[in-house]
Amino acid sequence: MADPTGELFLNAEMNAAEQRAALRRVASGEWHRVAAGIFSTLPEEHWADQLRRERVRLLAALFPKAVISYRTAFESVINGDEMFLAYGYHRVVELPGVRIHLVKGPGPQPGDAQSHTGIYIASTPRMFLDNLSIDRSGRHRNAPINKLEEKLIDILHIKGAAALNDLRDQAKAIAPALGRTREAALFDKMIGNLLGTRPDHRASSVRAQHVALGIDHARMALFDRLADTLRKATLPHMSDSLKSPDAKTHFAFLESYFSNFIEGTKFSVNEAINIALRQQIAASRPKDSHDIAAVFLQAQHPAWRALPFPHTDAAIDHLSERHRIMMEKRPEIRPGEFKIDANAAGGTRFVEPRLVRGTLKEAVRRLSTLAPGLPRALLAMFIVTEIHPFDDGNGRLARLVMNSELSHAGECRIIVPSIYRDVYLGGLRALSRDGNPEAYVDAMCRAQQWSASFVYEELDAVIDLMQRCQAFEEPSPDTSLLWPQGLAAL
Q1: How far is it, in rounded angstroms, from Cα 452 to Cα 412?
Q2: From the CA atom positions of the chain, what is the Rg in Å?
Q3: Where does 179-314 have alpha helices with state H?
Q4: Which residue(s) pair with 383 in the sheet?
Q5: Between 116 and 32, whose confidence is greater?
């Protein structure tokens, strides 16, 4: 069997004596003539693979000073069996395994990169302009416009708006020499749409439309996936059994205590009781004390306790007001004002500041597609958690939004005890990073069932029982949250 890595010889790389020697080798059967000026040491069945491997060298030899552009430059020259080049004339050249489309157009321009073989590769602005040209050949030489938009979005997300503006300026500068003034005008509209400065141009891809509207496309896919799961799932219905004012107050206290603990605001239970129920702010920790009191206020006060999350643009003001009240003693985090700097937790980078409003407005519309109660509550909490719209306080705010949805539907609110923190956060991470909603939904359903298993009329009694359930313990591989009935593991 012939060696499939045999050599390829090209007239353009040989002098006159070498070319004459090549013809003698072909005549003797040592070499094979693939096409005019192209010789191979391999038999015909290997020519297609060999020419594909050597495509850049081949192009440089056959078409000196050609510019790889159009769809080939967009997808990269190593992909596909068809290649499109700007050259001095129109022609289609058929070779084994390779079809070369020559498109009449200007040769190399400033910014076009010359490869080690001598052929040129279109600069990024030229590549975009060429792909926006009108193609009447029927050969699909241009990349689809939605793919061009996707590429611009990637540049925007990776390098920022300044990079798109620079790209637009470069395209305008080279357009006259390329004869691409129409394409430059279209390119200007595309970039302006993504940057929000040219709303008259409608993007073709959903992702580009989202970017133009200031929406995080990837997050919307997560919200839709969770909504679909919640729509199909058979979730438990745990009715709110808190009838007396005392029971509601005690539940609200424990909700606030544990919600703050998750965020690292730790007090002893007795200290927290003094803060929330007796309005005794700890002199040494006034801001932390107000965090306890503020969450307790919204969990207990009739004006907030059962106030549902709006499914419209009113969600913006709703969240801002909740956050303002909750964090009003921390002016350094700008209570009620959306973040201006990106934030992250662990390996999760939350929605960019410029996309917060658009993503929130679009996301809350999914709430109306779900049944009231637990389905809406779990989506609402994840929306706030995943967008993370404020500098701080997002986790506590998300849990308040969730529980207000539950109270509005007459269902039991959810307490996330300290020992359950890692299970709770693990479910959120699995959804956020891996797109897997099952762990999150399962964790919250179990937490609601656990929360509904207590009688909240006597605060000391419920605290004592929760302590025996290990609710106040730090998360540990050796310790589990227990059910109050028989103190079995949750």
Answers
A1: 6
A2: 32
A3: 181-194, 206-212, 217-232, 245-262, 269-278, 286-300, 302-305
A4: none
A5: 32
Quickly count: other Cβ atoms within 10 Å of residue 239's Cβ.
Answer: 11
6 — alpha (psi -120 to 50), left (phi > 0) or beta?
beta
Residue 80 banded pLDDT, cuts 50, 70, 90 = low
Q: What is the pLDDT of residue 284?
A: 94
Longest dimension (CA), the chain: 104
User: Residue 311 has what DSSP assignment?
Assistant: S
**Residue 133: phi, psi to the nearest 5?**
-70, 160
145-149, 283-287, 449-453: segment of lowest average pLDDT: 145-149
Residue 345 DSSP code: E
Alpha-carbon gap, residue 85 to 55, rounded angstroms: 12
- Ramachandran region, residue 308 (left: φ > 0; alpha: ψ -120 to 50; beta: rest): beta
d(C-alpha 421, C-alpha 447), whole Å: 11
Chain Cα centroid distance, residue 337: 23
Comparing 75-84, 298-307, 436-445, the range with the smallest average pLDDT is 75-84
pLDDT in tens, 181-237: 999 999 999 898 888 776 555 666 676 666 666 788 889 999 999 999 999 999 999
pTM: 0.67
Structure tokens at 99: 């079809």
What mean pLDDT is predicted for residues 377-384? 98
> pLDDT (tens digit, 9 = 90+) per residue, 308-362?
999 999 999 999 999 999 999 999 999 999 999 989 887 788 998 988 998 999 9
- Tell me the DSSP string of 395-456: HHHHHHHHHHHHHHTTB------GGGHHHHHHHHHHHHHH---HHHHHHHHHHHHHHTTS--
List the strands of the sheet with 82-87, edge to edge.
91-95, 98-104, 82-87, 67-68, 120-121, 113-114
What are the tokens at 165? 């503006």
Secondary-structure percent of the chain, ordered helix, strand, coil, rounded to 5? 55, 10, 35
Let me know: does 210 contact 223? Beta carbons within 8 Å.
no
Please state, in angstroms and as integers, the Cα–Cα distance from residue 479 to each residue in 8, 151, 269, 474, 485, following that order. Answer: 69, 49, 20, 9, 17
Beta strand residue intervals within 80-223, DSSP E? 82-87, 91-95, 98-104, 113-114, 120-121
The domain segmentation of the chain, as residue ranges, is 145-212, 217-468
Q: How far apart are the first and last CA of the chain?
A: 66
The overall average pLDDT reported for the chain is: 91
CATH architecture, range 217-468: Orthogonal Bundle (1.10)
Strand, helix or coil for residue 466: helix
β-pairing verdict for 348-349 and 344-345: antiparallel
Q: How many CA atoms lie within 13 A of 428 on its CB side?
A: 25
Stated length of the chain: 490
